[in-house]
């Protein structure tokens, strides 16, 4: 018999599901501690966040905390794996489009830094003047992975736990009988499918259905295309991907949103199990995406 708890977090929903109900309190305490530390390091809605301290400098060359180093490493790795389709240096553009919680809209920067100009070595961050980081594309997924690692290493946790942070899911330990049953669906009325997430697996969904706003006469979503610095096309309603970690799964799903109709071939070439829901609700999958339960979500 499993037990679960959910709560609001970062304009989304966090959820823990434990195989042993007696471990739920411990899991929630760990979650509160880990996620509070993540927020203190990189929230764009906190003036005292560690990442904000590096903005506005002529040049960044400074040590960072272990948690921020981990989040930045995941973000830079995402950019490297996707050749910049997922870029953590788009904070200035998110502000221009009104998605970063800025006090006012800033003018566009003609010559701007990109992820290629940023380096992190031995816990020390180097970046050129004018960089405005935003870890929205990978931060939540990295936080889920970080929490799972703490749960896995805590001697008080002996059974399986499923972590969900706003659609980024990762399992650790032995799941319940029948495995972790996951309903892959972005809300009521959306095309859905139930799959089984195996122990240690991760699943992430990127969506263009939420965090939308009017920009002039047009409604846009929050996922930007670094190639033209504007919102990506509305080709896909959602893209769900499986991988060994939430960071890897979210990197693939975000890149797919940016790629539009090129996404299925890109995902297939990389062996990513993926399910894509088009604007007209047509569902496409890569060859490694599972059939409905009892098939398993496996990562390449």
TrEMBL record:
Its EC number is 2.7.1.180. It catalyses: L-threonyl-[protein] + FAD = FMN-L-threonyl-[protein] + AMP + H(+). It comes from the Bacteria. Keywords: FAD, Flavoprotein, Magnesium, Metal-binding, Transferase. One of its GO terms (molecular function) is transferase activity. Its cofactor is Mg(2+). PANTHER family: FAD:PROTEIN FMN TRANSFERASE (PTHR30040:SF2), THIAMINE BIOSYNTHESIS LIPOPROTEIN APBE (PTHR30040). This is FAD:protein FMN transferase. It comes from Brachybacterium rhamnosum.
């Amino acid at each position: 018999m499993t037990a679960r708890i959910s709560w609001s977090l970062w304009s989304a929903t966090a959820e823990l599901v434990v195989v042993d109900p007696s471990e739920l309190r411990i899991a929630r305490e760990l979650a509160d501690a880990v996620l509070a530390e993540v927020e203190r390091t990189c929230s764009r809605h906190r003036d005292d966040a560690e990442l904000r301290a590096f903005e506005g400098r002529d040049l960044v060359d400074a040590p960072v905390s272990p948690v921020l180093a981990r989040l930045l490493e995941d973000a830079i790795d995402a950019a490297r794996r996707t050749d910049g389709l997922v870029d953590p240096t788009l904070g200035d553009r998110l502000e221009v489009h009104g998605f970063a919680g800025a006090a006012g809209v800033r003018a566009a920067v003609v010559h701007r830094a990109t992820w290629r100009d940023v380096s992190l070595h031995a816990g020390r961050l180097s970046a050129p003047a004018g960089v405005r980081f935003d870890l929205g594309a990978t931060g939540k997924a990295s936080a889920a992975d970080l929490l799972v690692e703490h749960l896995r290493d805590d001697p008080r946790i002996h059974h399986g736990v499923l972590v969900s942070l706003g659609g980024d899911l990762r399992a650790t330990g032995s799941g319940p009988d029948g495995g972790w049953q996951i309903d892959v669906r972005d809300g009521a009325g959306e095309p859905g499918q139930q799959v089984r997430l195996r122990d240690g697996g991760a699943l992430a969904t990127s969506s263009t259905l939420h965090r939308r706003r009017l920009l002039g006469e047009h409604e846009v979503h929050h996922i930007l295309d670094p190639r033209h610095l504007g919102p990506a096309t509305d080709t896909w309603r959602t893209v769900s991907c499986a991988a060994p970690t939430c960071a890897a799964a979210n990197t693939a799903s975000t890149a797919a949103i940016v790629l539009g109709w090129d996404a299925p071939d890109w995902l297939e070439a990389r062996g990513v199990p993926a399910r894509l829901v088009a604007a007209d609700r047509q569902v496409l999958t890569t060859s490694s995406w599972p059939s409905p339960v009892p098939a398993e979500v496996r990562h390449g």
